[in-house]
Amino acid sequence: MRETARQLLREREVGLVIGYAAGSEAYWVTPAFIKEEAQADRLVWNPFCVNSLAKYLINYHHEPYKVAVVVKGCDSRALVRLLQDNQVQREKVVVIGIPCLGVVDAKAAALKIAPGTRILGASVTDGEFLLQTESGTLSLPRGEALCAKCRYCENPTPVLADTLLAEEVAAEPAANIYAEVREVESWPREKRSAFWDGHFQRCLRCYACRNICPACTCRECVFDQTDPCWVAKAHNLSENTAFHLIRAMHVAGRCVDCGECERACPVNIPLRLLNQKVIKDIKELFGVSTPGSRLDEMPALGMFATEDPDEFN
Amino acid sequence: MSVRDFLLTREGLHSWLSRLARDYPLIAPVEEEKGVITFKQVGGPQEIVFDCAPSTLPPKEWFLPSTEELFAFSTAGGGITLQEPPGPKERVLFGLHPCDVRALLALDPVFGGTYPDPYYLGRRKATIIVALSCTKPGPYCFCPAVGGDPVVAAGADLLLTESGSSFAVKAMTSRGEEIIQRYPGHFAPDEEGRGERARQELAGQLAGMFAFLPDLRGVKEFLDGHFELPYWEEVASRCLGCGICTYTCPTCHCFDIFDQSWDGARGLRARCWDSCMFSQFTRMAGGHNPRPTQKERVRNRFLHKLKYHQDRYGLGGCVGCGRCVAKCPVNIDIRRIIGDLKELASHG
Q1: Strand locations in chain B, DSSP E?
Q2: Spatial separation of the C-alpha atoms in residues A148 and A306, rounded to whole Å
């Protein structure tokens, strides 16, 4: 990765490389914006590279130079959707793709290591997540350690890349991706209502879910408008519910199931579950793949076909 | 103010908390959702999380609610009538860690200064604060680096410190003494100074347990002379502009006032949390924005924590609770920021 970045910068092919740098803890990374060849050594790749970096490209839309961005498979779907919406221009981005066996959200995985233990390295294999510490190697089953989204990944290899930094990883046969959604769908209305009320009442309206979302690209967000005021500033169940439901509908067809909203949420609202419901419905209604899976597939809600379901008739 | 020390057994603590919950609204840390600890009113000690370090959200909600009705208005019957909501009842806030108590001391001059804020001050006055010494720092705690101490809680009415099978209780105010007197039979006088020894012992144990203590020396002086730094652009390029750091911060206190009315004839005026990380925070009528990019916003937040609060009130704006560190989705870590600024300062 460092060599690729160095080369791109040396040959002036790009003016910026967006990748990952070591975080303040061994189990965190932070986005890195590398403009000079000498800085490329800051780049890292490890199982803690959870962040989706694709959305940062929008900030460089008007720059004269090209930008290189590091993407995992899920992040490449976000990039495809951004390209389809003309938020990013293909000729202005160099895609550094990393085939990936899954990443670990250290906050969610609640790694059981004693505070202060030095982490020396980490890796993901077909079956395990391995964490090397100074007091030995800790092994966790893959299913327990990885982000929920990685447990049944549709695109372990980026769907779009100019360079792939590793051998392609084949997707596992699709398991029951929407098991959790189906479970909630099977509940009676009152139970579903109580479930979501319980979560939405906790919302702080910090807008991290929106700001981190690669599908949220509006120059002025509906929730920031004061006149007309579609959703009041007040934090209460009614307004919070309006916020989350409107958002889910607004990103319908653009949500690529990267799970960043849920990861960012400081109060653990299961936002991915909500957005997965929308993806599942769109797939069933329009027979399309997960948004962003194919650059040549028109977005379901961005096109019209005479075969589209027409249940109002 | 006299200082008095008592001892409380674990059973005694539970029965006292049960009594408190009957006599007052008792507010304490609870696990509201798996992994989310917040301060809520509780029915008794069985609901309380005693060893959180620290809670997911700070207790500031109980002094500066995320949304607070200031008054209701109505034009029914001609003219205009205003109705204020009832003031808060006396309540007990249990389980604050020393950093959270320090955060309240940092907020007091903001709301109690030239223009006293009756809402905040009313809630503050109505609250009896029972603090709990830390028994284990969280992985991102750094209170000693910003002048805090995990076993000292000046500003609380009572400080409880776990010591073996019992708790050492220190009455820090006359209000603290009164509440002890109100529950005879629970507290035994600590005549041998066991509490003081327990606190010192705990302080000694905790001293080596902070993983990352940034060095603040010289940082404020550097910021005094360096408003413009290219460094803020680097931080801002990562920042999402969400409100997590400000909303989980125990000392951030910005709010916005708005009216809510469906028909214009009646409605309410309220205030709710706002965040200097948001682009609209400084946007003026007419569209001008004096903090036009995330660079200015990020700089503002860190200068507020490390400089402005100190300039205005002589108090630190950061109490080292580590909540913003724990929750930032892009790992903007104030401990690292302090280290980076220190480095910049030393290189001129």
Answers
A1: 4-9, 26-33, 36-42, 67-74, 81-83, 91-96, 127-132, 158-163, 166-171, 188-189, 255-261, 266-273
A2: 36
Domain presence at residue A222: yes
A232 touching B (Cβ < 8 Å)? yes
* A207 with B278: Cβ contact below 8 A: yes
Is the CB of B333 less than 8 angstroms away from the CB of A116? no
A152 occurs within a structural domain:
yes
H or E element in which residue A95 lies: strand A93-97
How close is the nearest chain A Cα to the Cα of B317, in Å?
21
Please tell me the total count of domains within chain A: 2
In B243-262, the residues whose Cβ lies within 8 Å of chain A are 243-244, 246-248, 256, 258, 260
* Domain shared by A284 and A165, yes or no: no
Buried b (16+ CB within 10 A) or exposed e, A205-232: bbbbbbbbbbbbbeeebebeeeeeeebb
β A67-71/A93-97 pair status: parallel
Q: Which residues of chain B have pLDDT under 70?
A: 1-3, 348
Residue A127 lies in a domain: no
Helices (H), B72-209: 98-111, 118-125, 174-182, 194-207
Interface contact A15, partner B, CB < 8 A: no
State how far the Cα of A255 lies from the Cα of B206, in Å rounded to an integer. Answer: 45
The answer on A196 and A105 residing in a single domain is: no
pLDDT at A223 over 70: yes
Are A27 and A166 found together in one domain? yes
Q: How confident is residue A108, by pLDDT bands cut at 50, 70 and 90?
A: low
Q: How confident is the model at residue A310 (pLDDT cuts 50, 70, 90)?
A: confident
Residue A53 belongs to what domain range? 1-112+148-172
* Interface touch B241/A211, C-beta < 8 Å: yes
Does residue A155 share a domain with residue A82? yes
Same domain, A304 and A190: yes
Q: Are residues A19 and A162 in the same domain?
A: yes
**pLDDT value of position B1:** 38
The single-letter code of the amino acid at A274 is L
| Residue range B60-82, pLDDT digits in tens | 999 999 999 999 999 988 899 99
Mean pLDDT over residues A151-161, rounded?
94
Distance from CA of B32 to the nearest CA of A (A): 9
Q: What are phi and psi of A261, to 5 degrees?
A: -60, -45
> Do A186 and A163 share a structural domain?
no
CB-CB: which of A24, A202, A205 is closest to B331?
Answer: A24
The predicted pLDDT at position B217 comes to 94
Asked if residue A19 and residue A92 are part of one domain, the reply reads yes
**Per DSSP, what are the bridge partners of residue B37?**
B31
Q: Is residue A167 part of a domain?
A: yes
pLDDT above 70: percentage of residues in chain A: 96
